[in-house]
């Protein structure tokens, strides 16, 4: 546990690396005075949940790393103030459900990793506002299917990794003129129908 005012005097801080520690609880006010922070790395801790307000004043943040924790829940609105975020890494956690509006304010996001969780489904409108997204990693989850319009607004996507899931059929719309790589390995595929 880090005291709520631990970083209060570091108002000019732009990089904060707290990875490879044993943090399991983040004080809701911990980052409140770090308005200039561009990168926050919380990888490889024991964080179990992200609450609305944890990142509310990090309005300049570009990179947020939350991989290799034990996160099972992220409250709705947790990322609402991160309008300039370009990379979000939620890999290797215990996420089983994501709020449909969780990333709706992240229109500048370029790289999103939600691989190696236990997700089985994702709302068809989850990626709707991510028109700048270029890299999407959803591999190593428990997805069995995606609704037809799930990826249709991802017009700049270059990489889509859906490997190591339980997909039986691929039948969704892809408006992906820039797609260079699609990972479908290690699924249970019987048919593929990509509507480009």
Textual characterization of the structure:
- The protein has 196 residues and is mainly beta.
- The protein has no helices and twelve strands.
- An eight-stranded parallel beta sheet has the order 1-2-4-6-7-8-9-11, with no helix packed on it. Strands 3-5 form a two-stranded parallel ribbon. Strands 10-12 form a two-stranded parallel sheet.
- 30% of the residues are buried.
Please tell me the overall pLDDT: 95
Bin the helical content.
Answer: under 10%
- Give the SSE order as H and E letters: EEEEEEEEEEEE
Q: How large is the radius of gyration? A: 17 Å
Structural class: mainly beta
Percent range for β-strand residues: 15-25%
Give a brief description.
With 196 residues, the protein is mostly beta strands.
Per-chain topology:
Elements: E1 15-17, E2 39-41, E3 49-50, E4 63-65, E5 73-74, E6 87-89, E7 111-113, E8 135-137, E9 159-161, E10 169-173, E11 181-183, E12 191-195
Parallel strand pairs: 1-2, 2-4, 3-5, 4-6, 6-7, 7-8, 8-9, 9-11, 10-12
């Amino acid at each position: 546990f880090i005291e709520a005012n631990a970083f209060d005097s570091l108002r000019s801080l732009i990089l904060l690396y707290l990875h490879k520690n044993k943090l399991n609880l983040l004080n809701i006010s911990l980052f409140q005075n770090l308005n200039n922070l561009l990168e926050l790395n919380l990888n490889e801790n024991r964080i179990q949940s992200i609450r609305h307000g944890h990142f509310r004043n990090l309005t300049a943040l570009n990179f947020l790393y939350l991989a290799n924790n034990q996160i099972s829940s992220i409250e709705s609105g947790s990322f609402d103030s991160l309008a300039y975020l370009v990379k979000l890494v939620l890999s290797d956690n215990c996420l089983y459900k994501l709020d449909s509006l969780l990333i709706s304010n992240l229109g500048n996001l370029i790289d999103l990793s939600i691989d190696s969780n236990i997700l089985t489904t994702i709302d068809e409108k989850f990626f709707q506002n991510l028109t700048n997204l270029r890299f999407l990693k959803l591999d190593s989850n428990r997805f069995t299917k995606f609704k037809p319009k799930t990826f249709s607004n991802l017009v700049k996507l270059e990489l889509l990794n859906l490997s190591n899931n339980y997909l039986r059929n691929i039948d969704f719309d892809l408006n992906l003129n820039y797609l260079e790589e699609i990972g479908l390995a290690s699924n249970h595929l019987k048919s593929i129908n990509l509507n480009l």
